[in-house]
Amino acid sequence: MNLFFKKTASVKNPKWQRPVLLAAICLVLLLSMVRCKSNNNNNGYVSIDKKSVKEESLRHFEEITKVLQHPRCINCHPNDNYPRQGDDMHKHLFNVQRGPDDRGITGMKCTSCHQASNNLISGVPGAPQPNDSLASRWHLAPLSMGWIGLDDAELGARLLDKKQNGNMSPKDLVEHMTDDPLVLWAWDPGPGREPIPIPHDEFVEILEKWLETGAEVPKKNKD
Amino acid sequence: MIKFKINGTVTEVNDDPETPLLWVIRDSVGLKGTKFGCGKAFCGACSVHVEDQVVRSCSFPLKYAAGKSVTTIEGISDGQELHPVQKAWIEEQVPQCGYCQSGFIMSTVKLLEKNPNPSDEDINNSITNLCRCGTYSRVRKAVHKSAELIKKEQN
Ligand code: FES
Ligand code: FES
To answer: Ramachandran region of residue B69, left (φ > 0), alpha (ψ -120 to 50) or beta?
Structure first.
């Protein structure tokens, strides 16, 4: 018998080798499972993704606030009882006031002057009701939705607070800013008034991305 | 053709739907009591009632009056019997040139319907019409007088 052959054959098939090999394979599999699990437990790549999604949402909100704080929007979201006018946001001429239902006071209702469309003869702006093109929708946002003087964080908190925003979810808010004729007016404010600088469909895209990324708003002391 | 009621009478006019109601009232219907002051919804000289609300007719396109009921200064008296607000205006001798006064009276009528006992502050807030002759203090007196007369007539 060839001694060499005998020696190699005995190395190739020792009785103890199989279970050790199996145990090693199991150990490798087990370790790789543990590793995979640790990637999912908020300490690995996933949490970095979450952070970047939140940052993206906040970036969208920054764009949104530029629109909300534009005089065409915020002039009708005062934090007091006086609507504003113009790019300098002066108090509405002639002591025009909010009134009990945000629609002016007896004798000086918003709709005493503002009708369902921009008036090209008198220059008075107007906007229709969603379901009635002949009825005027002109009115102030409620006091709880007053934004003048708020920073982005305060505005965000107020915007999302269902107690203050008329029980609207972020989705409802996006729909309101997409469809409400009074909101749309800000893009078609009539001659002599600067419209919102970005197109409305671009604004809607930003709103939708904000919604998809979690509708985040900044915290008071910078997120 | 656009149809609406004016001082209780159904009227049909053939004006452009964008025409300010003021011009329709003055030129097509022929009622001259409602005045043109600024044409910009500032002064209130053109105030009329559309349904239940004071409206500045210089800034109110005719198309929005279709099917509605419009009342002008000519329509607030009861035949020969003047409206209590008109009586108070005479008693307090409010007008100077008179040009702005029908607007003040129309605003006052609606204010007193909704608020029969207005304070000076209510009057200041609600009656924001402009008067080049500066009759404001007499207007305020006449509003209070009107409130009194209305109450008397009701009792
Ligand atoms: S003429 Fe209409 S408000 Fe002055
Ligand atoms: S009485 Fe002359 S403008 Fe008023």
So the answer is: beta
CB contact under 8 A, A115 and B64: yes
Q: What angle do CA B132, B134, B140 make, to 5 degrees?
A: 130
Q: Is 50 exceeded by the pLDDT of residue B89?
A: yes
Atom of ligand 2 nearest to the CA of B94: 1
Single pTM value for the model: 0.84
Q: What is the complex's ipTM, to 2 decimals?
A: 0.92
Q: What are phi and psi of B87, to 5 degrees?
A: -60, -45
Give B135: exposed, middle or buried? Use CB within 10 Å, 0-12, 13-18, 19+: buried
Distance from CA of A89 to the nearest CA of B (A): 18
Mean pLDDT of chain A: 86
Find the CB nearest A116 among B55, B64, B127: B64
Residue A93 contacts B, CB cutoff 8 Å = yes
- Residue with the smallest CA separation from ligand 2 atom 4 is B131
Residues A72-129 have pLDDT tens digits of 999 999 999 999 999 999 999 999 999 999 999 988 999 999 999 999 999 999 999 9
Q: Which of A95, A107, A134 sits opposite B110 (nearest CB)?
A: A107
* Closest-lying ligand 2 atom to the alpha carbon of residue B131: 4
Residue A39 has pLDDT above 90, yes or no: no
B57: exposed, middle or buried (C-beta count within 10 Å: 0-12, 13-18, 19+)?
A: buried
- Does position A31 have pLDDT exceeding 90, yes or no? no
Domains of chain B are 2-75 (3.10.20.30), 84-154 (1.10.150.120)
B19 lines ligand 2 (CB under 6 A): no
More confident residue, A24 or B109: B109
Per-residue confidence at A49, pLDDT binned at 50, 70, 90? confident
Q: Does A124 touch chain B (CB under 8 A)?
A: yes
In the predicted structure, residue A11 carries a pLDDT above the cut 50: no
- DSSP conformational letter for B78: B
For residues B136-152, one letter each, b for 16 or more C-beta atoms within 10 angstroms of the residue's C-beta and e for the rest, the string is: bebbbbbbbbbbebbee
